[in-house]
Amino acid sequence: MEANIEKHLTKSVKAIGGKAIKLNPHWNIGIPDRMIILPKSRIYFIELKDRSKVSKAQKIWISWLINCGFDARIIRGKDELKIFLKEIENE
Predict the structure, then answer these.
(1) What are phi and psi of 61, to 5 degrees?
(2) For position 1, what pLDDT does the model report?
(3) How many CB atoms within 10 Å of residue 1?
(4) pLDDT at 58 over 90
(5) pLDDT tens, 2-22?
(6) Can you spell out the DSSP letters for the chain?
(7) Rounded Cα–Cα distance for residues 78 and 67 (Å)
(8) pLDDT per residue over 20-52, tens digit each?
(9) In the β-sheet with 71-76, what is the strand arrangement from edge to edge?
(10) Is 57 left (phi over 0), alpha (psi -120 to 50) or beta?
(11) Are the C-beta atoms of 32 and 61 separated by less than 8 Å?
């Protein structure tokens, strides 16, 4: 299920002129799944989850990114993804 959500995210971001870059967890354990880069200098860090738990390392990364001023969030399932996509389309 998570793979389907990731494909939908990637396709939708591309359709609005952005990139959904897959981040490699081998570089840093817990790094979010995707970095979304959109026109007008908009950057988002997204951790996609289905039913799995957020690890301690993932929580630390998300918190650190937010403290650095980035929009970093966890998206759980298709409904939350739809809300996020609507939000970035309307900015």
Answers:
(1) -60, -50
(2) 60
(3) 12
(4) yes
(5) 788 999 999 999 999 999 999
(6) -HHHHHHHHHHHHHHTT-EEEEP-TTTSTT--SEEEEETTTEEEEEEEESSSPPPHHHHHHHHHHHHTT-EEEEEEHHHHHHHHHHHHH--
(7) 27
(8) 999 988 878 999 999 999 999 999 999 999 878
(9) 19-22, 34-38, 42-49, 71-76
(10) alpha
(11) yes
Contact (Cβ atoms closer than 8 angstroms) between residue 18 and residue 10? no
Task: Give the per-residue pLDDT at 68.
Answer: 98
Q: Residue 38 — φ and ψ, nearest 5°?
A: -125, 160
The encoded tokens of residue 80 equal 């939350």
Q: Which residues contact 42 (CB under 8 A, 6 or more apart)?
A: 18, 36, 88, 91
What's residue 13's pLDDT?
97
Distance CA 68, CA 32 (A): 15
Pick 25 or 57 by higher pLDDT.
57
